[in-house]
Amino acid sequence: MEVEGRDFLNTPPMKTVRFGGSVAETMEKLRKGDNSDYELLKHQLADPDIKDAQIINWLQEFRGCMTQLTKDHEQLIYTVLRLPWVGRSPGVVDEFMAFLSNLVSAQTVYLCACLKMVVSHFTPKRVNICEGGVDISDSEDEDDNLPRNFDQCHQALQLIIRYVPSTSRFLMPILHDGFPFIQKSSRTLECYVHNLLRLTVYIPSIRRDVLELIIGRLLKLDVSASRTDIEEAEDDVAQKHPEEGLFDM
What we know:
mainly alpha, RNA_pol_I_trans_ini_fac_RRN3, DNA independent RNA polymerase I transcription factor
C-alpha cells in the first residue's frame, strides 16, 4: 500500500464545462449573495446515482478553488466527503485521494471530518430491503470487495498523515466513537477490529491505545454474550479451516 511518489498537491485539475457553472463560479455567486447554484451543486453531489465522470469532474474543480472553501462552506464540504468513492473506478479513487490531500493541506479545519469519513468505511455498509415501498429489513451487504475497499481507506489515511503529521492526535477519539455497538454482527465487529489493527502498523504511536480500546470492547462483548452463544461460536470455529476467514492476519 505505497503512497510515495504520488504528488497529489501538484497535479493540476482538468478544465471541465458543466451545466450550472463551475465550482469557482458558484462560489463567486455565493459570495455576492446568490446561493441558487450553490444549493443546486449540493443537490447534484448528493445524487445516489451519481456517475464516475461527474465525481471526477467536480473533484477536479474543487481542487482548483481549495483556498476558497473555508469554514463557511462546511455543508458543501460534508456533502463532498459523503461521495461514494470507496470501491469506485480507479479514476474516482485517485481523484478523491487528491481532493483529500489538498483539503487537509489547505483547510486543516476539516481534518477531523476527513478522518471520520474514512473510519466510517471500516465496516461493511448496510442495505435496506424494501417490499411495496415498505422498509422490512436492514441486512448486511455481502460485498466480496471488502479487502480492496479497506485497502483504499488505509491508503487515504496514510496520505492524510503524510500531509498532516499531527493526525494521530485527533484519531483516537474518532476510533472510540466509531466502534460498532456490541449488538452489531460478528462480521461487522471483525472488520472494525481488523482495520484498527492495521492502523497500528503505520501509526505505531497509537498502538497501545488501540489495543486497550479493542480489549475493553471485547470484554464488554464477552460479558453481554450468553454461555450458549459462546459455546456455539466455539463449535463453529472448530469446524472451519483458517483459510476460510475473510482476512489474512
